[in-house]
Amino acid sequence: MTGWRRWRVRLSLFAMVVGPGIITANVDNDAGGIATYSVAGAKFGFNILWVLPPIGVLSGMILWMCSKMAVVTGKGLSGLVRERFGVKASFYLMLALIFTNTANSVANFSGVAAGVELFGIPRLFAVPIVAFLVWRAVVKGTYRSIERLFLLACAFYLTYVVSGFLARPHWGEVLRRTVAPRTTFGGDYLYTVVGIVGATIAWMLFYQQASTVEKGVPLRQMRYAWLDVAIGAVMAMVVQYFIVLTCAATLHPHGIAVDSAEGAAKALAPVAGRYCSAMFALGLIIGGGTAQIQKNIIAERGLGMPREPRGQT
């Protein structure tokens, strides 16, 4: 086999496997996560950037464990929990999943509402439309179509990278504070670090493991699943890094405190320009909408729905 043909085969195999790792790592940047990173950057500036690379590595390790369990056992996470810990533990886990999904749904639709209003669109008009599109995607869409939608949304998260460059930070200072932060580890700082860990470590592992199982990845091709996870973890960490960087470069020097992603997007306009604010708001809308679709799919995967409940692929 020639070198070119060998690479074509490898790319084809990767294209068959790609998706679960990239999607799970990135779609976890939902409205709540964006708010957490925005508040951290506005409050502590560049001195909070150092926590993101190690947390990104930890997130990738957890995603990789789920990928390995999926490939080796051929079972989803909820099924393995039920087998290992029994029906009672699985029942309480599903209750926690329902509660978490409900709370995140509220946060996601709030993020969509805030984002569209920044473009002058009334929330009472936009939110029902987004809710209908979410319902349509989950109920009528196929797994493959939803996966393509998620991958496209992951590309749109790069709007936060654009926002970071539009903020025009001092890159030398950014790198110095990433490597050697200048801060005191007080209560507020540690509380924020814990919040970033909670926002970054993907709890959407039900989707990731079930999706890997559905792809039927053979054991000998596990390295492609690893590559999928690695790309996803790096992409997510870069997006999170630039969300913090944008707020740290613009809001922190002016002492502007924010308590939500909506507040951060509004505050960016006068100090960083309306284009930076618009990119930030666009990411908030996409993050809220696509994360909501995934949370509905997580619910059906966690409750043991068929692999392709909509009948077609």
The gist of it:
By secondary structure, this protein is mostly helical. Helices cover 78% and strands 0% of the residues.
Task: Please describe what this structure looks like.
The protein is mainly alpha-helical and 313 residues long. It has a single domain (18-302), classed as Hydantoin permease (Orthogonal Bundle), CATH 1.10.4160. The chain has 14 helices and no strands. Residues 304-313 have low confidence and may be disordered.
Question: What secondary-structure arrangement, pairings included, does this model have?
Answer:
Elements: H1 3-17, H2 20-27, H3 31-44, H4 52-73, H5 77-117, H6 123-140, H7 143-156, H8 159-166, H9 171-179, H10 187-200, H11 205-215, H12 222-250, H13 261-272, H14 274-302
Helix pairs in contact: 2-7, 2-11, 2-12, 3-10, 3-12, 4-11, 4-12, 5-6, 5-14, 6-14, 7-14, 8-12, 8-14, 11-14, 13-14
- Kindly report the name of the CATH homologous superfamily: Hydantoin permease
Name the CATH architecture. Orthogonal Bundle
The major sheet is characterized as:
none
CATH class: Mainly Alpha
